[in-house]
């Protein structure tokens, strides 16, 4: 029996909507006027400090939006000490400061701590290749990031973040909110997506047995070639992850679709468009 494509479109639209929120894995969590005003007022009240921080970041080839890390860490207060013992504008713990030659008593020195923070952030970026993970690592340490990545079997923040401390997850949310307030969120998210693309391309060079797969449902309205084309993956890879999918779709009219965990959000976001294109090309 031929599948009813009208019903397929309607059901896929419903399924697509149910997954859409999950596909939007990174966004500002507070875009309210009060939140925007709060962050802007803090920046406006600390113009000299902000100007120096931005200059120091740019001098090291880093983006100005990293000033927002100091904003959420300390509100630019060089004399603040956290309950955990972190000190200064950049909230350096003693061990972190010593790692870069910043002595314990200099952590509240704006000049030295900012120069040290720039070096630390640049090193973290070389390791993680995106600012979202850098912000998370700055908060909870590289060891916790490594453990979370291992637990999730993924290097993507939106996948492994559930294994991070709640404080770190909240810290990243604050950073994204601050970047929204300063108009820099699109650049931060574009940077994250670029890093994801590179990571996905690299992961496809790995044997499929070593790739963590997630599953969803598709029906016979989908063309595998269109799925591969839209996700920019090799058809052979798609079939290696789904060895029985062709016969299952032909016989049952529906099938589970397995994709790398890092790639699944892209499919869910594009699911309706892929189905529509599949039907048009039949």
Q: How is this structure best described in words?
A:
- The chain has 2 domains: 91 residues, no CATH class; 173 residues, Lysozyme (Orthogonal Bundle), CATH 1.10.530.
- It is built from 15 helices and 2 strands.
- It has a two-stranded antiparallel sheet with strand order 1-2.
- The longest helix is centred in the first third of the chain and has 19 residues.
List the main descriptive attributes of the protein structure presented here:
single chain, 282 residues, mainly alpha, Lysozyme, 2 domains, two-stranded antiparallel sheet, 2 strands, 63% helix, 5% strand, disordered N terminus
Integer count of domains: 2
Helix share of residues? 55-70%
List the helices and strands in order: HHHHHHHHHHHEHHHEH
Q: Mean pLDDT, nearest integer? A: 87
Please give the CATH architecture of the largest domain: Orthogonal Bundle
Short description:
With 282 residues, the chain is mostly helical.
